[in-house]
């Protein structure tokens, strides 16, 4: 009420300031959550409160295996798209065959990790926020706490393990699917044999290219886990709150993934 | 346990933002006693329960459970205490991803090194105690409201706790099922010598099971006493609650006008 | 808790004393199952038990089931008031053969 009498600039400045503080707070929370998750993974067993491997495996299946079909389809399509664009562009220089190099590097360094990250954020990040959010609303989190079961150990650590394992693996799978897509299109358009395509690709690519992609995917995995879990825990206000948090989790996770990707690419290519 | 009380709350004050929810609440529950915390909605009884469970930290005051001050205890101490506490939440709060039997077994799995076979027998025994024998393989979503409350009770008592907390046992149940649950609460106290705290707004249930009743209103304790003492209390607000009379508040015209106009 | 096993009148008698709780019920369970695995009729003497929790009762249940499978006799003797009320809560007093002592059991066996 008192605020309305302040000049507009002060109000918007205050808003920016508050937003910035909230953002810092959120990142601080992410950091604390990572530390606590790893604490339980490493020290849980000696405190007789281990992180259950079965829970992690269940999450791995959910995150990785169940997502493979859609990852394959989209990655394959990206491979085809890169081939189409590449051939179209390079034709002007009469250098169509160089397209293989372009596809190989773009896929392993950029598109494989990115498409995998975005897909897993959409599939599993939202599911994670919804699952934990529903548990908050149903007092299941409170129940865990009063039973002496730490929710971070019980719910977050397994997800983090699963993400750290599965996002890179699915990224590798996505790399292959996209390269296959490129190969199929080059075979049709340029008459390039699969063997030649494979030889050229592996000839151009270094292990570094693949590792760079995988390093990104590890970071993406952590982002998806943290953003999903945090938005789940932050749910208030019943079913509607769960819906809002789920949406927020997906949008934020994808945004952070793209921003992290940009930063990554910038620093790794200097 | 110096004082001998199972639960001892001293001068508990809590705030939600700047609003005071509990105002200098004192409460003492003896071992083996069934204490009912009663009050209308907004009385602060749920907040008091959350503090007793260690789910929220108070602004000031102390809460001693089985002799340990949970407002000043380490996580490890609290963890140890929680093995001696069972809680049955209003909505059951069973983990929906697990079967009923797995839910009941969860505390055993997390806190004991018992043989799998032993854990299963204990879980099934507890389901028998709450008359849910044979329902262990169902998921919580397949149970009725009364069954969920009983399953939650089975989980709450699976570790044979010394303290049992029960949030709104009869809310949303038909009278017969609610009466069954009341019987069960009394039976548990009699056979297991549990100290039981029940939070409820249901008068019939409260009068039936309580050894003593604490009446909470606007975050303050109006009265703590036996069933008869509460029934015969001359405090106007207590009688209003007992007779389900709506609250008659004094109106400050200036204040009221300000609230309406937002000025 | 402590336990000892003695053999008398064709029975292994597992005598439990003290508090039978989470920390020691696995030992009681092992002792009971060990006697049964050797093919001995087994009685569990609870007269020295000050407290028995659900895991202790579960061990008795498992013993009884194992005995039935093996065609062996099983039962409880010297059940204290406190132990009995725990059994009653889960209606197990109607399941176990319960007798005051060995003599009463032998008489019932005929």
Task: Give the tags.
heterotrimer, A: 270 residues, mainly alpha, globular, B: 263 residues, alpha/beta, six-stranded mixed sheet, 10 strands, 38% helix
Molecular structure report:
- The complex is a heterotrimer of chains A (270), B (263) and C (110).
- Chain A is an all-alpha fold and 270 residues long.
- Chain A has one domain.
- Chain A is built from 9 helices and no strands.
- The N and C termini of chain A lie far apart (51 Å).
- Chain B has helices at 45-52, 75-82, 100-111, 116-129, 145-156, 175-192, 203-209, 227-231, 236-242, 253-261; strands at residues 7-16, 19-29, 34-38, 60-65, 68-69, 85-88, 163-167, 195-200, 212-217, 220-226.
- In chain B, helix 3 packs across helix 4 and helix 4 packs across helix 5 (145-156).
- The longest helix of chain B is centred in the C-terminal third of the chain and has 18 residues, at 175-192.
- Chain B is globular.
- Chain B starts with 6 loop residues before the first strand and ends with a helix.
- By secondary structure, chain C is an alpha/beta fold.
- Chain C has a single domain, classed as STAS domain (Transcription Regulator spoIIAA, 2-Layer Sandwich), CATH 3.30.750.
- In chain C, strand 4, helix 3 and strand 5 (98-99) form a beta-alpha-beta unit.
- In chain C, helix 1 (25-37) packs parallel to helix 2 (54-69).
Largest sheet of chain C: 5 strands, mixed
**Counted beta strands of chain B:** 10
Q: Helix proportion of residues of chain C, in percent?
A: 40-55%
From the N-terminal CA to the C-terminal CA of chain C, the straight-line distance is: 33 Å
Biggest sheet: strand arrangement of chain C: 1-2-3-4-5
What overall geometry of chain C do the principal axes of the alpha carbons give?
Answer: globular
DSSP helix fraction of chain B:
25-40%
Number of helices of chain C: 4
What overall geometry of chain B do the principal axes of the alpha carbons give?
globular
Strand content of chain C: 25-35%
* Multimeric organization: heterotrimer
Enumerate how many helices of chain B there are, as a single number: 10
Runs of chain B with pLDDT <50, length 5+? none
Could you name the CATH topology of chain C?
Answer: Transcription Regulator spoIIAA
Distance between the termini of chain B: 53 Å
Q: Note the run of SSEs of chain C as H and E.
A: EEHEHEHEH
Residue runs with pLDDT of under 50 for 5 or more positions of chain C: none
What fraction of the residues of chain B are assigned to beta strands by DSSP? 15-25%
- Computed CA radius of gyration of chain B, to the nearest angstrom: 20 Å
Q: What sequence of helices (H) and strands (E) makes up the elements of chain B?
A: EEEHEEHEHHHEHEHEEHHH
